[in-house]
Predict the 3D structure of the following.
Amino acid sequence: MTSAKRKNSCVMAIAPSSRGFGFAVLERGKSLVDWGVKTVKGDKNPGSIEKVESMLGHYNPGVLVLPDAMVKGARRAPRIGRLCKEIAALASKRRIKVVLLTRDNVRSVFFEDGKGTKHMIAKVLAMRFSNELGHRLPPKRKPWRSEDYRMEIFDAVPFAVTDELINKGGSGSRPT
Amino acid sequence: MASSHLPNYLHANRKRLGLSQDEVAFLLGAENGTKVCRYERFTREPGFHAALACEVVFQRPLRELFAGLYEEIEREVAARAKRLVLRTDWVKLGNKGSRKREVLEGIAAPKKRKSQRP
């Protein structure tokens, strides 16, 4: 058979992190096709690029959404910024449209006043995709604990959902 | 032209149900998860028995589980139906051919048929 050689209408979102990256593949107007966390050992950026490349080859998405790590005021590590740039270049080479979104973009889509926490967004998504993500929602992070690795999924999914909602026509249809 | 579907959605459905590839393989009557992995990576198409077993396991119709493949086959059949319409001598068939022509034109325009569905 046949791999998904032609451009697909799905949106892939990647959220790089200190361990590797979280990813989500969303089909326009439909459901989540794939979601999860990829951990990379050793040299993070080349390992991540390799994994992203194989995923792009498998799903051949129409759009790739990445966090805008270079926006003014962003506090992401320089390595993440470089990784995002490399992933964007890889996608462009494959003629995949790259969309960069900031956390403010996401929050403005999820909340009317544009104010809300990461956990609140995760809860909304766990309800929206209850079959897929309901059981992956980690408990709210205590200030003295580090972030649960499952939150990487909830970093990536909002990017895909935000891109879909922006393309649908603004934030009129919030995913509540 | 952009395809709106992946060849199949076995991976997403399996993940949703929380089953492993080995478990799905067992349910499909395969020896191990290798076959399921190949189905999910679009490198192998399941046979008719395995496809029906997938419908039973995932409780989804085949045209949804194998949406991309269905779309591809639908396009091929539509093209063949168009050719059949063109090569049939409708004058010779007379009134008898009108029903047949209607059916073939319906197959040849699958998008139109879909939009007419309630």
